[in-house]
Amino acid sequence: MRYWRKPLDFDQVTVPRGEVVIIADRCKGCAFCVEYCPKDVLAMSEAFNVKGYHPPEVVVDGECVNCNLCEMICPDFAIFCVPAGDPVAVEAVISIAAEEDKFAEEEALN
Ligand code: SF4
Ligand code: SF4
């Protein structure tokens, strides 16, 4: 993001950093997250998920500002952002998503 002028409190502001967690198999390849990320952190990958779609991937390390826009805009709850340097939060997102997907699979069988 570029400012049209330098904010007066620029030296006092600490820019937050985030870590992106992508639940690839939930993705339907709509590219909303890629399109709207204000820092152009994401791109669609060449890989396929289990549904045959290309999920996004992080292409610029260290630039995510943890704004959570990708998370809010994703229609399939396939991408999340947590504060950088918090492996517990990353693990929590992955394990909760796995539990939810398992529950959904079981519900679909009943
Ligand atoms: S949290 Fe914000 S800056 Fe980080 S990848 Fe998502 S949209 Fe981009
Ligand atoms: S917004 Fe969600 S479903 Fe769309 S490409 Fe990104 S992760 Fe996949």
Any overview of this molecule?
30% of the residues lie in helices and 15% in strands. The chain is an alpha+beta fold. The protein has one domain (16-109): Alpha-Beta Plaits (2-Layer Sandwich). A two-stranded antiparallel ribbon has the order 1-4. It is elongated and about 60 Å long. The model has no long low-confidence stretch (mean pLDDT 95). Bound molecules: iron/sulfur cluster (2 copies). One iron/sulfur cluster (SF4) is lined by residues 27-33, 55-56, 73-76, 78-79.
Helix and strand layout, with pairings?
Layout: E1 18-22, H1 32-36, E2 42-44, E3 56-58, H2 69-73, E4 79-83, H3 87-109
Antiparallel strand pairs: 1-4, 2-3
The structure holds iron/sulfur cluster (2 copies).
Concise description?
The chain is an alpha+beta fold and about 110 residues long.
Distance between the termini: 48 Å
How many E strands?
Answer: 4
Element-by-element helix/strand order: EHEEHEH
- Number of separate domains: 1
Task: List the total number of helices.
Answer: 3
Oligomer: single chain
Note the main sheet. Answer: 2 strands, antiparallel
Helical residue percent? 25-40%
CATH class: Alpha Beta
User: What ligands are attached or bound here?
Assistant: iron/sulfur cluster
Task: Tell me the radius of gyration.
Answer: 16 Å
Shape: elongated
**Structural class by secondary-structure content:** alpha+beta
* Mean pLDDT, all residues: 95
What is the spatial order of strands in the main beta sheet?
A: 1-4
Low-confidence stretches: none
At CATH level 2, the architecture is 2-Layer Sandwich
Strand content: 5-15%
CATH topology: Alpha-Beta Plaits
